[in-house]
């Protein structure tokens, strides 16, 4: 047997497992530090850490895993992770995290629900970014170029401000603000020629915290499955099962603000004059700045209009993405996301955090899979309290009921601690999931369906996502 063949096994002293013994594996140091102590709080369960061992020294087959929190995975371990009873991964959710893909999801959102605001966005290759900017500066609404897709929005603004983002970047990396005076992509921005980039209308009048700082909300959301039912026999004579997608959102989140005071962007003449510390609100960019307060916890139940808008956006995104997530390996699999929302200034801006419901509109800017669970040093006590509470209640909602044999919890309830179910009206067939075995070709059809959708978008000269 090759020494490259590894498997995940419990320690040798745990071969005879009592029913209350469960095997888990958590990858990633930050996730381990956050989740393992919360698992060990549960006196009714004895958790055993699964670990990688060299299979050539083990005659026994690998022991199945009960719960896996996967931050990263080696290829040799992926089959065991995929077969876990509970796994924090769903198939093909990269379409929500990749910024270029997410722009296409938002196109579907706007075509399905005219009440959800979507910013004007273009997905371009680096080599086409300058051509797109030239065309937009000439006020062309449609660009005849099959190398990129143009999405249009009803919002007109005499000030043509744009933000350029690498499709696969996270944490504020490769994000650049392009003011009206910037007629060319600055030479200081090193674009990778064959990579995809998102060019998006920049909001020049954001809602300001304390009338000083630009900010965005970081809110946590879940996508899981419920209501498993048998649907008959398949062509290979096995029981076919399906479940229904069930989105949730957490009522406690964070405010992430810029570290420098925001001034209206028209005062800047070029991209080189843009102060990233005033315009970009990502934690990774601001946490090293003097006086930065860290992530500021907020109870969104005290801002019902804000929380209602967030729920509506998440419901619309799940509905739009569901056809491309249609096949999953198990109803015990779920995924946690970090949602970033940007509110737009109202005529009467609030003076403090208690009046943040006074906004004009709100945009869902991006979605992050596997959001960080590590607190910042500036506000670690408050952040740790929120993270611990959220993960503890996530375990109660998604993990423990499934492992205890009771199935998905709260099928007929809408709240679990701070988690609130997001109701999707008029549920259709697209909201149902075909449950296949790990590695089944049906799961790979998620990727195929998305590829066919992207091809259709590329073959279309213009895709309108908002016509009002």
From TrEMBL:
<keyword id="KW-0436">Ligase</keyword>
<keyword id="KW-0547">Nucleotide-binding</keyword>
<dbReference type="InterPro" id="IPR004344">
    <property type="entry name" value="TTL/TTLL_fam"/>
</dbReference>
<dbReference type="GO" id="GO:0015631">
    <property type="term" value="F:tubulin binding"/>
</dbReference>
<keyword id="KW-0067">ATP-binding</keyword>
<dbReference type="GO" id="GO:0036064">
    <property type="term" value="C:ciliary basal body"/>
</dbReference>
<dbReference type="GO" id="GO:0070740">
    <property type="term" value="F:tubulin-glutamic acid ligase activity"/>
</dbReference>
<protein>
    <recommendedName>
        <fullName>Tubulin--tyrosine ligase-like protein 5</fullName>
    </recommendedName>
</protein>
<dbReference type="Pfam" id="PF03133">
    <property type="entry name" value="TTL"/>
</dbReference>
<dbReference type="GO" id="GO:0005524">
    <property type="term" value="F:ATP binding"/>
</dbReference>
<dbReference type="GO" id="GO:0000226">
    <property type="term" value="P:microtubule cytoskeleton organization"/>
</dbReference>
């Amino acid at each position: 047997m090759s020494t490259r063949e590894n498997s995940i096994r419990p320690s040798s002293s745990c071969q005879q497992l009592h029913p209350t013994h469960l095997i888990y594996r958590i990858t990633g140091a930050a996730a381990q530090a956050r989740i393992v102590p919360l698992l060990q709080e549960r006196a009714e369960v004895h958790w055993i850490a699964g670990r990688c061992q060299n299979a050539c020294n083990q005659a026994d087959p690998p022991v199945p895993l009960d719960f896996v929190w996967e931050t990263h995975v080696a290829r040799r371990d992926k089959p065991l992770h995929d077969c876990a009873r509970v796994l924090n991964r769903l198939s093909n959710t990269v379409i929500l995290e990749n910024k270029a893909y997410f722009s296409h999801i938002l196109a579907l959102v706007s075509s399905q629900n005219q009440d959800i605001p979507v910013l004007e966005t273009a997905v371009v290759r680096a080599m086409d970014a300058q051509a797109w900017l030239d065309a937009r500066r000439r006020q062309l609404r449609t660009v005849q170029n099959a190398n990129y897709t143009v999405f249009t929005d009803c919002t007109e603004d005499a000030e043509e401000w744009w933000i350029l983002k690498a499709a696969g970047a996270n944490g504020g990396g490769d994000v650049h603000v392009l003011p009206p005076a910037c007629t060319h992509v600055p030479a200081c921005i090193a674009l990778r020629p064959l990579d995809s980039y998102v060019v998006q209308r920049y909001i020049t009048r954001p809602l300001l915290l304390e009338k000083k700082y630009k900010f965005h909300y970081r809110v946590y959301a879940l996508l899981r499955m419920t209501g498993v039912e048998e649907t008959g026999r398949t062509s290979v004579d096995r029981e076919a099962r399906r479940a229904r997608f069930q989105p949730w959102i957490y009522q406690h989140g964070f405010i992430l603000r810029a570290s420098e005071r925001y001034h209206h962007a028209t005062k800047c003449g070029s991209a080189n004059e843009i102060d990233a510390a005033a315009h970009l609100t990502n934690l990774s960019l601001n946490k090293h700045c003097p006086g930065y307060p860290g992530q500021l916890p907020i109870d969104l139940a005290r801002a019902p209009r804000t929380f209602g808008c967030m729920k509506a956006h998440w419901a619309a995104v799940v509905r739009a993405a569901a056809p491309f997530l249609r096949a999953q390996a198990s109803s015990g699999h779920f995924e946690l996301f970090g949602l970033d929302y940007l509110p737009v200034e109202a005529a009467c801006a609030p003076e403090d955090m208690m009046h943040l419901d006074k906004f004009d509109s709100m945009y869902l800017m991006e979605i992050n899979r596997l959001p960080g669970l590590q607190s910042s040093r500036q506000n670690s006590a408050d952040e740790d309290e929120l993270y611990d509470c959220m993960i503890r209640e996530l375990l109660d909602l998604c993990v423990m009921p499934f492992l205890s044999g009771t199935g998905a919890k709260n099928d007929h309830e809408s709240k679990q601690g701070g988690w609130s179910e997001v109701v999707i009206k008029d549920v259709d067939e697209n909201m149902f999931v075909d449950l296949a075995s790990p590695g089944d070709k049906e799961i790979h059809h998620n990727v195929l369906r998305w590829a066919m959708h992207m091809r259709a978008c590329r073959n279309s000269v213009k895709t309108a996502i908002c016509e009002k």
